[in-house]
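Bug: token stream looks shifted between consecutive jobs. Job 1:
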Amino acid sequence: MFKIDPTSNRITPLEAKRFSDLGFTERRHLQEWLENYPQALAQGDGEELLIIQKEFDGFDDTRERLDLLAIDKDGNLVIIENKLDDSGRDVVWQALKYASYCANLKKQQVVEIFQRYLNQKAQTEGGEPADAEKLLLEFLQADDLPSVQLNTLKSQRLILVAAHYRKEVTNTVLWLSQFGVNCQCFKVTPWQAGDELFLNVEQIIPTPEASDFMIGMMAKEAEEKSSSTEQRHSHQLRQAFWEQALDAFSQSQCNLYNNISPSKDHWLSAGSGVSAMAFNLIFSKSEVRVEFYMSRSQAEVNQFVFERLAAQKEQIEASFGAELTWQPLPNRKACRILYAKPVDGYDKANWSEMIEWLVAHMIRLEQALSAPLEQIKQKLKNADLHKELTQGAE
């Protein structure tokens, strides 16, 4: 790995180091880094992890503890084991044990584990603890806990983190993958250039190409299983609601959703003209919502757009005609701007009023953001944007 000096137009080699040589430890350093920035282990586009506990030891009749426990966007528990400079021989066995222990956790137990974690953080950092169930539902984009598929049978994932992997570990992981065990190995390497330190995080098993293929095969299998079962009542409601809503939009001055089909999901997205940034309609049991959602794979680009819009907050809200909710979502890649209305969403008698509200407020939101987004779109095309973002991060 090399460091580029644009001024001299030269490259300088970085020196690969051992964590132990730099005085870094597994618990005080690597574990803390990953706890506070789990996106480092989210190699796929759009993949997000939510840390729900660290050094978890809540297993009956055992004193063993796992390093980090997380959840992914599909509601799968993710067991993360860190081993610093050397993976050791037994890391796969340890992770499998923890996965077997976690497989028995029910939804409410997962929420309680997450709440204890939030309580501990609040006690350490000061302030009131956040509500675990609310954060979990927001992360999973779900209406309520009963409707969530959480920690289902055979869904547990394993993530191993180390600077060096022994052959017996990599061979075992590759063998387990043939039996549907979702196990990833990340190689972490510290680098040094003078007084500067860097960390490279690289997924080595499965390779990104193999991972995409495996995810595609699992998605195909899930789709086939889903098509052979009856849709849940909530899915049927959403499908019917969106059919009515899209019909109303087609007769309005808003053209965003002209080519969008009804969905069983609780949201509909339409492009804004800026890549990976959408105008969303949200229909849930307790509210309807219009929002502008910034979800580029690069978190700094989302932050860049959000900050440019926030700088024009007064003008945008004056144009919209109401105070909007601005959410930078610092623990996630995305950002959003929204306006919501509490409703009894699953009562069909309310649908006509709800749809009328969505149409009116999406028209207002699109108009309010139209001119600012056009300016930002030109800025995003600027060749100096990367330099500006880098300087902003510093």
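Job 2, same session, no restart:
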Amino acid sequence: MRQNDFENTPMLKLVMSLAIPSMIAQLVNILYSIVDRMFVGQIEEVGNVCLAAVGICGPIVTLLSSFGTLVGIGGSIWLSMCLGQKNEKRASQILYNSFVMMVVLSICLTFGFILLKHNLIYWFGGSDALYPYANTYLTIYTLGTFFALMSIGLNYFITGQGYATIAMLSVCIGAFTNIIFDFILIRTLKIGVAGAAIGTVIAQFLSCMFVLCFLRFKSKIKLHKEELSIEKMKHIVKLGFSPFLIIASDSIILIVMNMMLQKYGENMGDIYISAITVAQSYFLLITGPLLGISSGTQPIFAYHFGSQNLKKIKEAFKIVISFAFLFCLVMFIISMCYSNVFVAMFTNDAMTMPIANRAIKIFCLGILMMSIQYVLVDGITGLSNVKLSLFLSLNRKLMYLGCTCLLPAFLGVSNIFYAQPVADIYASIVTIICFIKIIPSYLKSHGVK
């Protein structure tokens, strides 16, 4: 229940107290998808097909839940700024307006995705063999959209007030519930991919209830009825659009990658999709905690931007970048040495395993540079420079998308995996240059000194 003191806590201690719980929360949150895929991949006789089907649904599901990030990050950044300005009344209004936005979005998205799911599966790399399993998983998951958006979106408002451990706990409740129900529904009751989806929805329901109860009764800024404001909603979307675009475009790129694998993989399309599903699951073990570091410490930048404290902002950037780089260095070494151990947890298929193992090693070639890019882009968003963070996000995604489409066409389908490190290294260099050239004058123009 302890709330972090943004004003007086030493910066190293403050960064660690926010980054580590957020890292753990993201890591545990990844268990939603990874555990589903591990159990599904081990289903007798049809495990590899089911794994590919869940892989097709993965980016669609992420795209769906990214709308919670749109409102959650946008609203929580603004809330942290208001706390830095000692304006609790406005912070309360932001929380309520964000809640209403997520309710409306969840209703619209549920109906929209249910109506489009048949086309989405085939548009985004599905085949006749994969369709029955993908359709079952996506239908059940979509019906739980409300719980997914609330548990993801509102959790940012807990972190934004400094309750990083409580935010971590809400994710842990859902993730461990998901593991238990996966074991019961898939292993014991033999329900298959339907069991994976049902377990996820139940887990998200419990996380949602926990978050709502905490914000309603325990947090400093409580969730209660306030005046609705279209202008506030627009500003929330403006602040949240860049991180939303990062997550949503990641999903779109993965969808395009599945399409390219089916197109150029010939009769091995489903095998390549199974392999890249495993590789992407591993890569989440890097990008998830890294996102936890960058987004978990975002309230620090927002708070001190609101209080116009340049010294604290500089100190925070140095510490957060160092921590992110160290984490990625450790993960790079592990990836190069032990990726085969991870692959074996998902599948024992002789054709899938070597492709997945190679994909993991290639994916990780650019992660040291990526650590810097993540922190700078999220930090820039925390400083309310939405235009720059949006440009930097789009820059990376367009490079990734271009490489995903061109590499298999000119260098063969097996080289599509190089799209990841090429985009990571290129975007990191551009981000560092823009940060050095633009941010000092930007802060000065906003009175931060």
